[in-house]
Amino acid sequence: MSAKTDVEPFYLPIGDEIEVFTAAYKSRLPVLLKGPTGCGKTRFIEHMAWRLFPDLQVSHSNLQSLITVSCHEDLTATDLVGRYLLDQDSTFWQDGPLTRAVRSGAICYLDEIVEARKDTTVLIHSLTDHRRLLPIDKTGEVLQAHESFLLVISYNPGYQSILKDLKPSTRQRFVSLVFDYPPPEQEALIIERECGVDGSNAQRLATLGQKVRNLRDHGFEEGVSTRLLIYAGELIDNGIAARTAIEYAIVQSLTDDPEVKEALNSIADIVFP
Amino acid sequence: MSAKTDVEPFYLPIGDEIEVFTAAYKSRLPVLLKGPTGCGKTRFIEHMAWRLFPDLQVSHSNLQSLITVSCHEDLTATDLVGRYLLDQDSTFWQDGPLTRAVRSGAICYLDEIVEARKDTTVLIHSLTDHRRLLPIDKTGEVLQAHESFLLVISYNPGYQSILKDLKPSTRQRFVSLVFDYPPPEQEALIIERECGVDGSNAQRLATLGQKVRNLRDHGFEEGVSTRLLIYAGELIDNGIAARTAIEYAIVQSLTDDPEVKEALNSIADIVFP
Amino acid sequence: MSAKTDVEPFYLPIGDEIEVFTAAYKSRLPVLLKGPTGCGKTRFIEHMAWRLFPDLQVSHSNLQSLITVSCHEDLTATDLVGRYLLDQDSTFWQDGPLTRAVRSGAICYLDEIVEARKDTTVLIHSLTDHRRLLPIDKTGEVLQAHESFLLVISYNPGYQSILKDLKPSTRQRFVSLVFDYPPPEQEALIIERECGVDGSNAQRLATLGQKVRNLRDHGFEEGVSTRLLIYAGELIDNGIAARTAIEYAIVQSLTDDPEVKEALNSIADIVFP
Amino acid sequence: MSAKTDVEPFYLPIGDEIEVFTAAYKSRLPVLLKGPTGCGKTRFIEHMAWRLFPDLQVSHSNLQSLITVSCHEDLTATDLVGRYLLDQDSTFWQDGPLTRAVRSGAICYLDEIVEARKDTTVLIHSLTDHRRLLPIDKTGEVLQAHESFLLVISYNPGYQSILKDLKPSTRQRFVSLVFDYPPPEQEALIIERECGVDGSNAQRLATLGQKVRNLRDHGFEEGVSTRLLIYAGELIDNGIAARTAIEYAIVQSLTDDPEVKEALNSIADIVFP
Amino acid sequence: MSAKTDVEPFYLPIGDEIEVFTAAYKSRLPVLLKGPTGCGKTRFIEHMAWRLFPDLQVSHSNLQSLITVSCHEDLTATDLVGRYLLDQDSTFWQDGPLTRAVRSGAICYLDEIVEARKDTTVLIHSLTDHRRLLPIDKTGEVLQAHESFLLVISYNPGYQSILKDLKPSTRQRFVSLVFDYPPPEQEALIIERECGVDGSNAQRLATLGQKVRNLRDHGFEEGVSTRLLIYAGELIDNGIAARTAIEYAIVQSLTDDPEVKEALNSIADIVFP
Amino acid sequence: MSAKTDVEPFYLPIGDEIEVFTAAYKSRLPVLLKGPTGCGKTRFIEHMAWRLFPDLQVSHSNLQSLITVSCHEDLTATDLVGRYLLDQDSTFWQDGPLTRAVRSGAICYLDEIVEARKDTTVLIHSLTDHRRLLPIDKTGEVLQAHESFLLVISYNPGYQSILKDLKPSTRQRFVSLVFDYPPPEQEALIIERECGVDGSNAQRLATLGQKVRNLRDHGFEEGVSTRLLIYAGELIDNGIAARTAIEYAIVQSLTDDPEVKEALNSIADIVFP
Predict the structure, then answer these.
(1) What would you report as the CA-atom Rg of chain D, rounded to the nearest whole angstrom?
(2) Which residue of C has its CA nearest to D96?
(3) How does DSSP assign chain C, residue by residue?
(4) CA of B113, closest CA in chain A: separation in Å?
(5) Is there a contact between D256 and C91 if contact means CB atoms under 8 Å apart?
(6) pLDDT at F264
(7) E193 — phi, psi (to 5°)?
(8) Do the beta carbons of residue A178 and residue A134 sit within 8 Å?
(9) Dihedral pair phi/psi, residue C226, rounded to 5°
């Protein structure tokens, strides 16, 4: 494994997302990141956490200024806020990740918020308006957020059925930044940088990514993440033939449908003849 | 962040809501606040809590006379009333937010009551008639409410499917105040006051808000909250171009639908040419 | 707030309900109170509890002979019967409200029984036949009810979908008293007595109530409770104009539907021209 | 209240049910009682428990040889078998009602078995074949049933949707006795005996019961239980007019449907002119 | 009750099921028993447990080499594997029935496996392939099964909707033995042996059983178990008339449908004229 | 039972799966194994765990470098990560299987991942990207994975309804290897090696397997696992006739459908005439 840690998280800006996020942070306006699977939302927030708190970072993979929670349907308010645990002699209180962020002044990033249980969504209301308060029902405390604290959430608008679950009363509490996959020239740079593959293969993998995403207009919804393109590059770099690497890292990871596989392989035929 | 706390919560009355609330409070009649997302219900109840208990306030964001609970589908009667916790040697009882309000004589504001579990709704029945009692099943206590106590709830009648969940036997226990977005002149004043944007931009943002809400008659249900207009003002005040600020604070926060975005941008073209 | 407590709960009989309840109590036959929202069922049972146990009462709002439980979908048998709690050194048993009534010989009033969980409904079977027994599974006790004990339940037959939930095997264990809103002359007396409004306004509010209830034949199901008419009277008594009071206490509390509001306002136009 | 306790439970046999039950008990074959609401199944099993164990009874309402459990949808195997409770120093085991019956050799009567949770139904399998074993998973014990023990269950075949829930693998473990309402002459005797009403009114109430049950062929499914006829008799005996007693004890207890009420009142017109 | 215990469990083989089971056991291949309600699956496994472990048995009803679990929809992996219990000073671990069998080398028989919760089904995977391992998540142990251990499960293929719940990935781990009701000559022998009825009545009951099962081809799905035929024999042996015994032990136990009852009675008319 | 343990797990490679897995492991790319029931996925991962960590193995059935979890619908994040247990004096933390693998650097194999609860799926996100972190919410720890750690998951794409549950945001985090049943010559070698059956029968069983799988094109979806072919071989080796062995080990284990059984027997007629 290459030694990529302990440097600034690499992020290639596509538009004015860094400026707008910085402006929103200046007024402590909560931010929503919208965009498809694997287009760079997590990397962006890591980059911003590094950039806004330059003195605070230990390593790329352990940012002191960023507390990330991957939301899921069993995630409760208790998981976020904290709970009482039983010790040798008594119970003691343990902060959850949101409470830690509120106290310490970190960015709290709730990834795929719509997947969480509803009490989670409501919990953030008083943190996202002028009050900036976190009520902790179980202890009776009402925390005033640290002045550096910011709440950031993400969701994928491509999942239509889930979209409707983010209630307008929640959604209208955020500035909303939109993300999409990078253009091919930039994506080639990212692929080359993230794995050891040469520039020519990186360029071809980026072209492949763009052509696969164009299938979205023909009913293949998902697109391919930059991550999978990098996986293919890693396998190539480890000595696997390019077309084999594409088969296992991209085609089989995207679909089980024989017709879609055929379409993906036709694209690969063109890009990697 | 500007130092807006520790002063009376700013509220610009639209109609006779302050007089009617004061009269209802005089007879301790419970009050229901009806209205759309972000139209000022929370600010109104903060204002009334400050106004009715002038001697009691610590700061705007920490009103001693107001205990707010954001309701959600996992909120139980136990969360509101209290629970036994385990200490070093024994269990002890901890009041929930409703019990604290009942004992101390605060206003208890249950925001979006219809989202809470049904046992919550029933719990308030004996507090909202001539008895003004809160039975605490777990301790066997029956609390007579403090003479200053009042119960206030809110809900959004625009969510049709939820509306039917507020049973008539609950609903007919409240005086009902109706709220809507402020007229543009007043909203411009609010925007200017809440963020540092100049009067001209504030006026244009208010006009934008009004025009977006008029889309409701054309099938766009949600409207835009005053909060989002203020967000756009904050971004402008922090140096972001007006149209960029509107794109991220308003358009992208309101919708993911390309056609609705186009309609919103056409409105922005007119107001911010 | 007026000093209305510590006197006999005011109840104006409409038919022979007092005589039949007294006869049923003489044979300890369980009683079911049927009727719409806010027509006086709760007040009636308070009145009977006062009347049948004249020596036992502390105050109107704290009747020693009546234990009321508002049922809801999370109410379990354990909530009614009791539970073990953990003390410093051991667990101890705490009676629930039904067990307290069974031991002390009070009337136990289960309001809106059909809302409770099914185990609750079954629990009362052995209390409502010749056995008059309450088995407490958790302690292994089988309580013989105190000779004064009586079980009374209520439900609202207007909620059709709920009605079918009261199983015949439960329903056929009760004598069933039917309640409806009082005729206007009586309702005017009640309004005048309960709030400080003058006789003329009380009469007009009662007329308004009657006319609103007649809309039931035109598809407006709910009727208006006597309570809301009293609320309007309270607001008038506190200096709010009559039509404003009616708007907030009655019209907005009854509906969100613009057409129904218009119909209600037309009625108000006639009664309060 | 009349002193009817401490004597043999009154039961008037309709067919050969006493002989067949006695024969089944001789071989310890489990028995299923089928029949509509309030037709006498509970009274029959009380009578048999008294009859088969004449030396064991304390009182009619507290039969040592009979342990009755009213089943409901929250009833679990743990409720029937027992659970660990926490005492001052340790946990201790407490038998549930089924385990008490298995150990002591009583009849265990599971009323409306199909309402219970499925684990309850399966639990009884090893008690109803040649093994006569009750495995107690939580303690690791396997109890051999006392030689006097018998399992008896009941259900109401009129509830069609529930019927299918009694799986054939359960049902084919029982001898099945069928019950129905008694013929009018016998029912008149029962009514006269159970309440103080005179023979003429008892006869007329029994006739009323028969006619109401004939409505079953015209779409009124439920029939009227003997219990409600006795309630009407009790009210008459306490001085309420016969037609008023019938209205409250029978008509209103059977239905909320105006047309069915009218049909029932027409029958009452004929029987109590 | 007759003294039938402490002898080898009686089982009359129909085909080569004993040989195949013995061969499967020799290679420790897990076995699935398929067949309708009450056709002898439980008795067969008792017989095999006795036969394969002749030195280990205490009594017929308490086989040391066989641990039976009747599965139901609330049965969890924890119920099968074991749990921590709280003792005076600490928690201690208690094996569940599956773990006891794995440790001691007994046959574990999971009756009606498809009724259990899915985690139960998955739990047995590592016990049914070459690994023969039982992982105990809660203690961190991974048990290697005793060399005598075997897992046996059963299900009833007649319950079509349930059938599909036994996933192929589970099902393809078992050798599958098929069972059906015995032919009439053999069933007569079983009936005569199990109850005291004479050979002529036993023969007629077996004939009745065969004719009832033939109704399966005419839409009566369930068949009649050998057990119910024995019940009828027991009642006859205890002095009940044959047709009465058949009515209560067979007809009423099989159905509530009047037409099916009539068909069953017509068959009884022929066999017991 | 034959002494097959303590040697390298036998695996016959079909394509380039060993090379691609080795290359993916070199870059620590997570791997997804796709394929039908019983085609060798589990054996492959056992083989790779042995091959990549040759010095670490105790025995074939107890691989130190491989921690396998069979997923099911009740499997929670807590089951994977760990939980607090109560000891004599205090609580202590116990790692779950995923945490043990993350700490010790083993391969963690989550078999049939789509069956697990959603929180499980989300939990693995931060372990499958550049961070390689496992957050343990309950202790507040964030574990950096051991450098040898790798996450491997499997699923069966033939279960269409389940497929859609593996969200693209999860799926696009894995290199995907595809498995299918081995060709007949190779499968015959496997059968002969795994049980004592002779080469001729092994060849015929493999041919039978191939022909049964061809039925998939005619609507019989499941195919037959290599395991069942080996079972048949074991029974033959234990003296059961070949056709009898096929009936019980293959035909009855595959289906309850008479028509499918007939088709399977026709195939057996050809292969074992």
Answers:
(1) 21
(2) C137
(3) ----TTSPPP----SSHHHHHHHHHHTT--EEEE--TTSSHHHHHHHHHHHHSGGG-SBTTB-TTEEEEE--TT--HHHHHEEEEE-SSSEEEEE-HHHHHHHHTPEEEEETGGGS-HHHHHHTGGGSSTT-EEEETTTTEEEEPPTT-EEEEEE-TT-HHHHTTS-HHHHTTSEEEE--PPPHHHHHHHHHHHSS--HHHHHHHHHHHHHHHHGGGGT--S---HHHHHHHHHHHHTT--HHHHHIIIIIHHH---HHHHHHHHHHHHHH--
(4) 12
(5) no
(6) 94
(7) -70, -35
(8) no
(9) -55, -35
**Residue E146 contacts residue E105 (beta carbons within 8 Å):** yes
Token look-up 């909620």 returns C159
The encoded tokens of residue D74 equal: 């929250």
Query: How many Å apart are CA C171 and CA D214, to the nearest integer?
Result: 20
Per DSSP bridges, beta strands B150-155 and E141-144 are unpaired
Chain Cα centroid distance, residue E11: 13
Q: B70, A131: Cβ pair inside 8 Å?
A: no
d(CA C166, CA C179): 18
- Are the C-beta atoms of E33 and F248 separated by less than 8 Å? no
- Give the SS3 label for residue F170: helix
Residue among E61, E72, E228 minimizing CB distance to D172: E228
Query: DSSP of C220-238, one letter per residue?
Result: --S---HHHHHHHHHHHHT
Task: Spell out which residues of chain D touch residue E235, defining contact as CB-CB under 8 Å.
Answer: 20, 23-24, 27, 29, 175
Q: How far apart are alpha carbons C145 and C100 in whole angstroms?
A: 10
DSSP three-state, residue F205: helix
**Nearest Cα residue in chain C from D253:** C176
Model confidence pLDDT, tens digit, residues D130-182: 889 998 877 778 899 999 999 999 988 765 444 445 777 788 899 999 998 99
Name the neighbours of F, counting chains with at least 3 Cβ pairs within 8 A. A, E
CB spacing of E172 vs F95 below 8 angstroms: no
* pLDDT given for residue F113 in this prediction: 84
Q: How far is C147 from chain B (nearest CA, A)?
A: 23
For residue B204, give the H/E element and its range.
Answer: helix B199-214
Neighbouring C-beta atoms of residue A200, cutoff 10 Å: 10
Residues E77/E125, Cβ–Cβ less than 8 Å: no
B-chain residues near C95 (CB < 8 A): 140
Measured CA to CA, the distance from residue C76 to residue C99 in angstroms comes to 13
Tell me the pLDDT tens digit for each residue of F220-269.
667 899 999 999 999 999 999 999 999 999 999 998 888 889 999 999 99
Residue C152, amino acid: V
Looking at the DSSP assignment, which residues form a beta bridge with residue C34?
C155, C178
Q: With an 8 Å Cβ cutoff, are D137 and E97 in contact?
A: yes
CA distance F246 to A130: 74
| Contact (Cβ atoms closer than 8 angstroms) between residue D128 and residue D8 | no
Residue for token pair 């303690």: D139
Rg (CA), chain B: 21
Unique residue bearing structure tokens 């639990």: D123
Q: Give yes or no for a contact between D179 and D40, defined as CB atoms under 8 angstroms apart.
A: yes
Question: Closest residue of E to F221, CA-based?
Answer: E168
Residue position matching structure tokens 């002529």: E200
Task: List chain A residues with CB under 8 Å of F91.
Answer: 85-87
Rounded Cα gap, residues D243 and D240, in angstroms: 8
3-class SS of residue A211: helix
Give first-to-last CA distance, chain E, whole Å.
30
Beta bridge partners of F93: F84
- pLDDT-derived band at E17, boundaries 50, 70, 90: very high
Residue B52, both tokens: 């009715």
What is the rounded CA–CA span in Å between residue F192 and residue F233?
8
Query: Number of CB pairs < 8 Å for A and F?
Result: 119
Q: Could you count the other beta carbons within 10 Å of the beta carbon of residue E199?
A: 11
- For D169, how many CA atoms within 13 A lie in the half-sphere containing its CB? 27
